[in-house]
Amino acid sequence: MANEVDVAEVNPKPLPLVMAPPRGRGKPPRHLADLSGDERKAAAEELGLKPFRVKQVAHHYFARFERDPEQMTDLPAKERDAIVGALLPPLLNQVRVLEADKGTTRKTLWRLFDNALVESVLMRYPDRATICVSSQAGCGMACPFCATGQGGLQRNMSTAEIMDQVVDAAHQMASGAVPGGPGRLSNVVFMGMGEPMANYKAVIGAVRRMVAPAPDGLGLSARNITVSTVGLVPRMLQLAEEGIPVTLALSLHAPDDELRNELVPINNRSSVAETVAAAWNYAKTTKRRVSIEYAMMRDINDQAWRADLLGDVLNSYGDWGWVHVNLIPLNPTPGSMWTASRREDEREFVRRLEAKGIPTTVRDTRGSDIDGACGQLAAAE
User: Fold this and answer.
1) 84, part of any domain
2) Confidence at 337, pLDDT banded by 50, 70, 90
3) Which of 178, 201, 273, 381 is most enclosed, with most CB atoms within 10 A?
4) At residue 371, does pLDDT exceed 70?
């Protein structure tokens, strides 16, 4: 059973609450993580600061994962609160924290400045630690089996709002707050609330901050960052030209247009063939293997013949190992008609794909007992 954790137990100094305007109005406050190098210089001039002061704050944020002014003792004591308040305004306020897997899986519900709710999930494994981040408050893709999609889109998140989820997770790992002792955040996946490609500019901005070395960013490997999409073809093509070798994950969920039009409505704009071709183009351009995400739904998309069709569709673009299929046991939402596949059907699906030479795994399901599916916790709140 999961335990709901009092926020103060996870973070003894939770971020101060911000007086919030009604949902959907205004923009998040300007934050250091939103700013390019030139913009940081301009901000320093605007605030009457020497550029090295901004660099000091950046070092605390990106290298030490610190947001508490009291811990930034290299800043002048009398100006510390003002400097940090101007450059690192609170963006995320903890509402609830749930844990599972003996505390190594932690799901956090965050309230943004305008009262919008988003979620992130930190998962610690023996060999890595991964944060699953949200990129939008809500989602406009309207996939019927997804809790977030059923709530609709409220707004895009800013680069800094995305980054702050990652910095918080890095701080939890470094401070030893997650069982297993102090460690390092190694992986980031854009598989939380929202469609990352529909918030392209902010997502790419966040990715660039993640891979830049401190004090300009977190210094993560681009190869350990996964950006998912339900198939916004123009943006997939654009991502291939960015020069950042992240992993692309395509949420396909069906190999045929008839079913995918129902499960993933964006398919009415770009067919399965067009979407998979864009994924193939990404693999060909970046030399990075693409992950095909496939949520297994009982008697909906888990038939053996669909496994054969999926294998044929993927193999039609080459056999150099450009793709990997990641089957996802569906985490059903309360009252939903969609439910997880039978284990025997799941095993047969894997067997059929592997028979066609497609590397296939079944995702390790974490957080099912803490409203693990994206959007469930926000919807409940």
Assistant:
1) no
2) confident
3) 178
4) no
